[in-house]
Automatic annotation (TrEMBL):
<dbReference type="Pfam" id="PF22244">
    <property type="entry name" value="GCE_fung"/>
</dbReference>
<keyword id="KW-0732">Signal</keyword>
<protein>
    <recommendedName>
        <fullName>4-O-methyl-glucuronoyl methylesterase-like domain-containing protein</fullName>
    </recommendedName>
</protein>
<dbReference type="GO" id="GO:0052689">
    <property type="term" value="F:carboxylic ester hydrolase activity"/>
</dbReference>
<dbReference type="InterPro" id="IPR029058">
    <property type="entry name" value="AB_hydrolase_fold"/>
</dbReference>
<keyword id="KW-0378">Hydrolase</keyword>
<feature type="signal peptide">
    <location>
        <begin position="1"/>
        <end position="19"/>
    </location>
</feature>
<keyword id="KW-0719">Serine esterase</keyword>
<dbReference type="InterPro" id="IPR054579">
    <property type="entry name" value="GCE-like_dom"/>
</dbReference>
<feature type="domain" description="4-O-methyl-glucuronoyl methylesterase-like">
    <location>
        <begin position="224"/>
        <end position="373"/>
    </location>
</feature>
Length: 424
């Protein structure tokens, strides 16, 4: 009896803690909640005109996401500079131009460099661009032997031959399948990509990366309402856009921020925080990205803040196991991008990212697209797999797992031709 009691005393709290983190995939277990209305202000005023959205509602929503979710950028850079490191007119069998540009950021006597790898179609100048981060270095997205291997910290991966947190030739081309480079070029678009680890290494350590440049004296970590890694990656995308604006081969008024998964979260925040981005693509971005948090399906706020304590600002932990207290949800992040083109995509086997929550989020952001007279996802019923719904706000769910596929890119290119960079 005594041992049983001891067992209960130990195992009960443990199993409760585990239960908290047991992901739910059952629609019947989704808690009831009221979806916050993008077109009603926090103090209850109805928004009926785009001017009210732009002057009142959008700023208050933006401020909430900035201070309570992703975190504020604490100040401005002192300066930045661009340095063309390498270029060739004979890339991809002569179809494309390749450029490798080093961007240097300066602040408080410190600096940080990151490199943009660019492929531009020779057939279209200036070219509209897809700009997105990669997970394992610029050299991982192509077999092109001329792409420089990054010296920045990398996540070890047995599969890709990465150890000692160092990238080598072993990982050249390992992510070719995620970047339909030829299709992008043939479609008349350029691709700009950056290794995300150069902007902020993806680890719970705030001593390195972009954050460290902005610290006040003796500051070691961001304040509670200051940026986590997602906001730092988004900031990096904006600085890349600063470069793109200077390059005459690029049509910087038609740059689409693109990202997969955690980098899809960053692409969304970049699009929300920098309206120079002409469009945004969220590929399987899930929790803290396109998926509604209040559904608590798959990954939850508590879970993501525990596994990745460096991604969001500290204030966001207020909502761990407490999603009902959120006065916003992620459809309002999507709405911050309106009326610019936005593509939300899911994968059928990526239940962790809650495809239905990603779809509903696009649906509930639609009222703001409507306000502008642009089309979104008005249907409440999810489309069949591999049956994209493409409007200014687009959505698809494809078969397969958490990944970026040729199929995804085919849809993005088609859609971007119709809604982002229409050929004259
Ligand atoms: C984890 C994490 C997700 C994230 C994903 C990724 O699965 O829980 O939130 O999107 O990694 O970036 O691949």
């Amino acid at each position: 009896m005594k041992t049983f009691l001891v067992y209960l005393l130990i195992s009960y709290p443990l199993s409760m803690a585990m239960a908290q983190f047991e992901p739910n995939y059952d629609e019947r277990q989704v808690p009831e909640f009221k979806i916050p209305d993008p077109l009603t202000t926090f103090d209850g005023k109805k928004i009926t005109a785009t001017s009210e959205w732009e002057n009142t509602r959008r700023p208050e929503l933006y401020q909430f996401f900035e201070e309570q979710v992703y975190g504020k950028v604490p100040g401005k850079l002192d300066s930045l500079s661009f340095n063309m490191v390498e270029t060739s007119d004979d890339a991809l069998n002569g179809k494309a131009q390749r450029k490798q540009v080093e961007v240097s950021l300066f602040k408080n006597g410190k600096s940080l460099d990151f490199n943009i790898l660019l492929y531009l179609p020779k057939s279209r100048k200036p070219a509209p661009i897809f700009l997105g981060y990669n997970f394992y270095g610029n050299h991982s997205i192509t077999d092109d032997p001329n792409v420089i291997v990054s010296k920045a910290w990398a996540m070890d991966s047995e599969e890709f031959g990465i150890s000692g947190h160092t990238l080598t030739e072993a990982s050249r081309g390992v992510r070719v399948h995620r970047w339909a480079l030829e299709k992008i070029i043939d479609g008349g678009f350029g691709l700009a990509t950056i290794y995300y680890g150069e902007v902020d290494p993806d680890k719970n350590d705030f001593s390195d990366g972009l954050h460290s440049l902005f610290y006040m004296e003796s500051q070691e970590i961001p304040k509670k309402d200051e940026w986590g890694s997602i906001a730092a990656w988004a900031f990096g995308m904006s600085r890349a856009l600063d470069y793109l604006e200077t390059d005459p081969d690029i049509d910087a008024s038609h740059v689409v921020s693109f990202g997969h998964s955690r980098l899809g979260k960053a692409a969304l925040w970049a699009g929300a925080s920098d309206t120079r981005f002409a469009g945004v693509i969220s590929n399987d971005s899930g929790c803290g990205g396109a998926a509604l948090s209040k559904r608590q399906v798959g990954e939850t706020v508590g879970r993501i803040n525990t596994s990745f304590p460096h991604w969001f600002c500290d204030n966001f932990t207020e909502y761990n196991e407490n999603e009902e207290a959120l006065p916003v949800d992620q459809h309002e992040l999507l709405a911050l991008i309106a009326p610019r083109p936005l593509y939300v995509a899911s994968a059928e086997d990526d239940q962790w990212a809650d495809p239905r929550g990603e779809f509903l989020s696009a649906h509930y952001a639609t009222s703001v697209y409507d306000l502008y007279g642009t089309k979104g996802i008005s249907d409440t019923k999810m489309p069949e797999v591999n049956s994209p719904v493409q409007n200014t706000l687009a959505y698809h769910i494809r078969t397969g797992k958490h990944d970026v596929t040729e199929y995804d890119w085919e849809q993005y290119i088609d859609w971007a031709k119709r809604f982002v960079a229409v050929k004259p």
